[in-house]
Design a protein that fits this description.
Keywords: Signal. This is PRC-barrel domain protein. The chain is α+β, with helices and mostly antiparallel strands and 146 residues long. Helices cover 26% and strands 31% of the residues. The strands form two sheets. The protein has a six-stranded mixed β-sheet with strand order 6-5-4-3-8-7. A two-stranded antiparallel sheet has the order 1-2. A hairpin with a 2-residue loop joins strand 5 (80-90) and strand 6 (93-101). The chain is flat.
Length: 146
């Protein structure tokens, strides 16, 4: 009887071993959920907007503070498109937000740098109004350019 139990256990282990290579990522409908190994690498090498960027001062290339990064706007096509910079604050409350193409802001020596910006030039940019931004993201299928 011991031999029979051992044979069944060996058969079960062998069949499970054969099925293991067939395992795939979890699927909800037809779309794989979670991240791939390549995407995980991008995540590890990226930075958290909340921890690394939001609320941080923005300097010009002369080292002068020109504002504070308050928000990042993500376009419906998944692109991080614009940074919202508070050009003037009083007691931590933004008095004048401006929208800046994200490509104009870089990181140098661990600081956010907006090359060529001056406080006067930033204050002269028309104020950004959140009322024009969708409060709820739209579905990708409803985005005309996707």
């Amino acid at each position: 009887m011991n031999v029979a139990k051992l044979a069944v256990a060996a058969l079960a282990a062998a069949s499970l071993g054969l099925l293991a290579p067939l395992a795939q990522a979890q699927v909800a409908g037809a779309q794989t959920i979670g991240v791939s190994v390549e995407q995980a690498s991008l995540i590890v090498n990226g930075w958290s907007a909340k921890q690394s960027l939001l609320g941080k001062p923005v300097y010009n290339d002369q080292g002068e503070k020109v504002g504070v990064l308050h928000d990042i706007i993500v376009a419906p096509n998944d692109a991080v498109s614009f940074a919202i910079v508070a050009a003037h604050q009083f007691l931590g409350v933004s008095q004048h937000d401006v929208a800046v193409p994200i490509t104009q802001i870089d990181i140098a020596n661990g600081k956010l740098v907006w090359a060529g910006a001056t406080r006067a030039a930033v204050k002269a940019i028309p104020a950004f109004q959140y009322a024009k931004v969708h409060a709820t993201p739209i579905a990708r299928s409803e985005y005309l350019h996707h």
